[in-house]
Amino acid sequence: MGCGVKLVEINRDTTICISIALKPGNFGAVVQNAAYKAIGLNFIYKPFGIEPSDLPHAVKAVKALKIRGCGVSMPYKVDVMKYLDKIDEKAKKIGAVNTIVNSNGTLEGYNTDYHGAKIALEKIFNPKGKTVLIIGAGGAARAISLALKELGAEKIFITNRTQEKAESLADEFGLQAIKFEDIKKTKSDLFINATPVGMNPENDKMVIDSSFLNNFKAVLDVVTAPPETLLMREAKKKGLIVIPGYVMSLYQSAKQFELYTGKEAPLDVMKKSLIDIWGIKDW
Question: Which domains does the chain have, with CATH numbers?
């Protein structure tokens, strides 16, 4: 991949890590495999697409096949919890898991989305004392909500097409739920898309009308494929600060790497792998 990395031969001793999602992407495979090769680890990482009915079987396979780590993506971050042996305290508080670590047959769930969101926000647009509007009420919204609360956001609005989900999450995290149709008259410092809207192959879609972007100063889009979504492009046109999903995902993936391997993540290598593969220039 042009990263100056050492190639590792796959054999019977190779440690396997995977990810599961309804619509799997290549992000994890790119950054994790680059990191393994860079420090000479006999590890490989492979994303899998699974149907909702296969979720319990996939988790059983992680244990049966002695798979070391498993990333969990939309829409399984909440449902997967009931199939695990242990849940990390932070993930328990969030109510969602995006990382499973298999320690000698014991499956423990973690949430590294929280770490990724917290670091990305601190580096690009610190929400301390600011107002925020989140669209979405799934696992990503849960992790981001806790990160925002811990970073000192003054007020957090949340909405979802299913109003009951937004109200439930608002009650749980101390947020303020608003109706989806009220987005157009809600102003805040930061807008967060915590839904898959805009993800490949439907990358011509936006979760809100572009005219509503005038209500915000900054945008965070959790979508990583494509690396620059329509929402991000429209936000840049209007002069807004943009926090790309790949920045949040890079830091959460680095935390996953450390949980899987017990070693410090080679962050520069992981970052360069994205630049080489996707041609990202605006970092």
Answer: 15-111+247-278 (3.40.50.10860), 114-243 (3.40.50.720)
